[in-house]
Amino acid sequence: MTASGTASATPPQAAAPSGIRGGLRARLRAWRLWIILALVLCLVVILGVLAGSETDETALSPASAAPDGAMAAARILDEQGVEVLRPGSLDEAQALLRDKRSDTTLLLIDPDNFLNADQLAELDGIAKRQVLVEPSFEQLGALAPGIRSAGLLPENSGDSALSADCDVPDAAAAESIDAGGLAYRAPVVCFPAPGGPDSGGAYAADDDGAVVVLGNAAVLANETLASRGNAALTLRTLGSTGTLVWYQPTAADISAPDLPVDPRALLPEWVNPLLLWLLVVAGLAMFWRGRRLGPLAAEPLPVVVRSAETAEGRARLYQDGRASDRAAATLRAAALTRLAARLRLGPQSTADMVVRAAAHATGRSVDDVDRLLNRPLPGGDAELVQWSQDLQALEEEVTAS
Predict the structure, then answer these.
(1) Which domain holds residue 223?
(2) Are residues 240 and 105 in the same domain?
(3) Count of alpha carbons within 13 Å of 333, Cβ hemisphere only?
(4) Looking at residue 388, what is its pLDDT?
(5) Are residues 131 and 237 in the same domain?
(6) Which residues contact 112 (CB under 8 A, 6 or more apart)?
(7) How far apart are CA 115 and CA 252, in angstroms?
(8) Are residues 330 and 229 part of one domain?
(9) Is the Cα dihedral 133, 119, 87, 173 positive or negative?
(10) 193 and 335 both lie in a single domain
(11) Residues 243 and 147 in one domain
């Protein structure tokens, strides 16, 4: 009885795993299309991440094929026999410039001002020619003391251009370039602003042409290189020597003194033992004078008011008091403070400085930004609503730039 019972019970137990495997195979066959699609999607995502990690998206980078990159200009220069070198650090740039000092052009593009005055002074005079793209006041002072900033040039509306109006061969060959960018005053000025050479121009150089300033970075970009004489000016200015060192500083080039300092490193050595001793004394004092905690007492929590409710209440107070001018003044002051912080202007910056920097960052005209930040405030409630919306749109554009 036992042997036969055992033998009869064995086949169902052995058949159970095969039934499970059969059901699993059936499910896999039913879902095989979705499984294949999921695997293909994962493969595409992985390949996209790997390919995207190697793509250089830096503006005006000679390795970037994006619209704001400068791969087209770099490749044309290379085809013309100019050796284009792109150093990855300040030390590497100095080494390349010293190796080929007599036949080298330095192209410096540092819109974020990563290099300080001392680092800029180390680059001065090493190359045969220096080309600066939209340089700041500090860069001009270190590398081009004879050239001064002259403000903004009218933005490019698509059909506007600046004529050379000078005898410099590089500029004369270009004849005209796209308008926009920054204007500079120098002994030699080309592509002047509408007010004439005295108002500055998009191309500035010293007497011997050893230092050149390009006020419109867009003439180098891929999307506008073929427009008007942008290519002629770019290629002749950057291809005048056999080697071009295309240097774009990064955050890694910031010198150690400019980095945030650990406050503890500024304290004398005896402070740490003293702090430890004070901590021990404070603990002993708490143990000595401390009292035993009593029973827990329930008490109502303080009222919590949401920030949105306080803002709405303040707005209603302004409305009830018909103080639209006060409300507009408050909005403008707060907007100027936020814009100055986002544009990395100092605490001593004026409203005019914020206006120019915001116009440069967003591509708007100076008059348009000045109307929002520096003109008479709106009078009525309807004008205040529209004006506040325009002000918010300006801040969003600055944040996105």
Answers:
(1) 71-255
(2) yes
(3) 6
(4) 84
(5) yes
(6) 249
(7) 10
(8) no
(9) positive
(10) no
(11) yes
Domain tally, the chain: 2
Residue 239 lies in a domain: yes
CA 332, CA 256: separation in Å to the nearest integer?
37
Phi, psi (deg, nearest 5) at residue 190 = -125, 160
Measured in residues, the chain has a length of 401
In this structure, the answer to whether residues 321 and 232 fall within a common structural domain is no
**Domain final residue pick, 220, 255, 290:** 255
Enumerate residues 6+ apart whose C-beta is below 8 A from 380.
324
Do 102 and 222 fall into the same domain?
A: yes
How far is the C-alpha of 62 from the C-alpha of 369, rounded, in Å? 33
Q: What is the pLDDT of residue 54?
A: 54
Q: Is residue 24 part of a domain?
A: no
**Which residues, given as ranges, of the chain have pLDDT below 50?**
1-16, 53, 157-158
Instruction: Count the Cβ atoms, other than its own, within 10 Å of residue 365.
Output: 14
Domain membership flag for residue 164:
yes
* Number of helices (H), then strands (E), in the chain: 13, 11
Dump the DSSP string for 27-40: HHHHHHHHHHHHHH
Instruction: Tell me how far apart the alpha carbons of residues 294 and 301 are, in angstroms, rounded to a whole number.
Output: 20
What is the pLDDT, as a whole number, of residue 112? 92
Question: Model's pTM, two decimal places?
Answer: 0.53
Tell me the one-letter amino acid at 165.
D
Q: What is the pLDDT of residues 61-72, one digit of tens each?
A: 999 999 999 999
Question: What are the respective helix, strand and coil percentages of the chain, to the nearest 5?
Answer: 50, 15, 35
Looking at 54-104, list the stretches that DSSP marks H as alpha helix, in order from N- to C-terminal side. Answer: 71-79, 90-99
Q: Are 369 and 362 in contact (CB under 8 A)?
A: yes
Grouping H, G, I as helix, E, B as strand and the rest as coil, residue 154 is coil
Q: Are 211 and 353 in a shared domain? A: no
Rg over alpha carbons for the chain, rounded to the nearest Å, is 33
Task: State how beta strands 211-214 and 176-178 pair.
Answer: unpaired
Contact 401, 358 (CB under 8 A): no
Domain contains 155: yes
pLDDT value for 372 = 83
Last residue of a domain, one of 230, 255, 280: 255
DSSP string, 354-396: HHHHHHHHH---HHHHHHHHSSPPP-SHHHHHHHHHHHHHHHH
Q: Which residues contact 372 (CB under 8 A, 6 or more apart)?
A: 387, 390, 391, 394
Distance, in Å, from the CA atom of 220 to the CA atom of 215, rounded to the nearest integer, reads 11
What is the helix (H) or strand (E) element at residue 317, kind and residue range? helix 307-320
